[in-house]
Amino acid sequence: MVACAILGDSLADGVAAFRPDCLADTKVGISTSAYLRAHTTAVDAGTVLISLGVNDGETDPGTADRLAGLRTRITARRIFWILPARPETTRHIIRDIAHAFGDRLIETRGYTGSDGLHLSPQTYRTIATVFDLSLTAPCCRSQAAPADGGNGRRGQR
Question: Residue 58: pLDDT band by 50, 70, 90 thresholds?
Fold first, then answer.
C-alpha cells in the first residue's frame, strides 16, 4: 500500500506536480477507456485522487460504467474525485459515482483558466493540500478549489 496515489488525466497531472510524495499515474489527454486499457491492476493507497472522464466526450455511453469499474478496483481510506468544470454530462456521472461510493468531490467550476477547464498552478497546488484534510471532514460534500486570482495553466509534460 502507498500513502497516496493520483490517477488520471491532465487535471490529475497538474495536482501530481505538487505532490511528488504520491504515486502519480497520469497522462495528459487520456480517456477513461485508454486509461483502463493501460492500467489493469488494483490500487491500494491511503488516499487517492481521481480525474478521468473529461476526455471521453459527452456522447460516450460507456463512461459511467468504466469509471464505476475503475472505482471498484481502488481500496483507500479516502478517495477524492476532481469534478471538472465541464462538460455537464461528465460532472453528473462523476458526482453520482462519488456519492454511490461515499467519496469526496473537489469542485473546480469557477476556478479555471481561460480554456474553462484547466486550472492555474496555484489552484493545482491548493488542491494538492486536500490530502491533508482531517478524516473527520464530512464525506460526499463538494470542496471548492480556493480562488487564486490566476488564470494560467501548468505546462504539459
Answer: confident
